[in-house]
Amino acid sequence: MNTDLSWVLNDVLEVRGARHAVLVSGDGLLLQRSDDISRDDAETNAAAMSSMQSLSRAVSGFVGSGNGVWKQTLMEYDGGWIFLSAAGQGAYLAVSAAPDVDMEAVSFRMQKTVAALSKAMSVAPRSATGGGS
To answer: How far apart are CA 89 and CA 94, in angstroms?
Structure first.
């Protein structure tokens, strides 16, 4: 993805207590990162977030509706929270936050951002052939 979407991540980080944000492809590649996280850390977390969304989707039936559609995963740690949500076809937005963050505000900001820019953040599936035109 060549489009600079750092402004999207900066908007999400306007919520008091939000720390870092990464935009991730479904196969774990870092698409964009906020300025306050190193590239190495962002790439490591991008791979992990891809795995987390895959696990979250795999257990979606556990909600009991039979065909639960995954929307967001929330993880709690001693030092804060991680929010992970779908951000268009094949893209995911992850935000880390402090323990006292307004969780509703982060979630709302993420949803608003994703809704407004879902086409810009969509990632087409990779071609398995690898050949050119």
So the answer is: 15
pLDDT tens, residue by residue, 16-57:
999 999 999 989 999 889 988 999 999 999 999 999 998 988
**Which pTM value belongs to this model?**
0.82
| Contact between residue 122 and residue 89 where contact means Cβ atoms under 8 Å apart | yes
Nearest to 123 by CA among 35, 18, 23: 23
Contact 50, 25 (CB under 8 A): yes
List, in order, residues 6 or more apart from 30 with CB less than 8 Å away.
Answer: 22, 23, 24, 39, 42, 43, 46
| Residue 1 confidence (pLDDT) | 45
